[in-house]
Design goal:
Layout (H helix, E strand, L loop, with lengths): L33 H13 L8 E2 L3 H10 L6 E5 L7 H9 L3 E5 L13 H5 L7 H10 L3 H10 L3 E3 L6 H8 L8 H8 L22
Parallel strand pairs: 1-2, 2-3, 3-4
Helix pairs in contact: 5-6
Length: 210
């Protein structure tokens, strides 16, 4: 479940990939509840069509509610997660419930610049942040490797993307070193509660994080 938002179904033959709007470019809600949607996903597991199901972009209260009725518990919770948006309480709760946490946008504003998002333009790049660069210099790693190791050291899975062969190799080489306690504390101090992947930031009237 990508976003906890019920929107009108648009057939892939009309538009693919899907988005927040219908075939007329309007945000049109449907009446499907999260519980109804989750039970439909559970049937996919029951019918052997998939082995695991998960959720994305849920806040703690929605996860807490889902766990009340879920017969098949979510295998993973995928969230925006980087030093500007650590979501410590949510990560802790999910992990305590035995749900793996997967991070997207591990480099913060970097992946949102290509979308011309003003919030990303206004935020200093994490790859160039003085704290991250200082730790990278002291460990002999790249800033990207430091950001990925910070996440995996918190038991958060990462799914970085790159079209560069060398960067792909570097992204895989992030488990051969550890960040010290002082490094982890220094990165923690960067947290701003700054979220980029919010429908409102794209101009859609869907304030799911309000």
């Amino acid at each position: 479940m990508h976003f906890p938002i019920a929107l009108k179904y648009v057939d892939p033959s009309v538009r693919y990939p899907p988005g927040f709007t219908d075939e007329n470019g309007k945000v049109t809600h449907s009446n499907a509840s999260i519980e109804e949607t989750w039970k439909a996903m559970e049937k996919l597991v029951d019918n052997g069509l998939c082995k695991s199901i998960g959720i994305s972009n849920f806040r703690g209260v929605l996860l807490m509610d889902l766990l009340r009725y879920a017969k098949v518990r979510p295998a993973t919770l995928q969230i925006e997660h980087h030093p500007y948006l650590m979501q410590e309480g949510l990560v802790k709760y999910a992990q305590e419930e035995g749900i793996a946490v997967t991070a997207y946008s591990s480099f913060g504003p970097q992946s949102f610049l290509e979308m011309d998002m003003q919030q990303a333009k206004d935020a200093p790049l994490l790859l160039e942040h003085p704290t991250i660069k200082k730790i990278a210099d002291s460990t002999g790693k790249t800033p990207a490797q430091v950001l990925l190791r910070w996440a995996t050291q918190r038991n958060v899975a990462v799914i970085p993307k790159s079209n560069n062969k060398d960067r792909l190799a570097q992204n895989l080489d992030v488990l051969g070193f550890d960040l010290g306690d002082e490094d982890m504390k220094a990165i923690k101090a960067i947290d701003k509660g700054l979220r980029f992947n919010d429908p409102v930031n794209y101009g859609f009237p869907l304030p799911i994080y309000a």
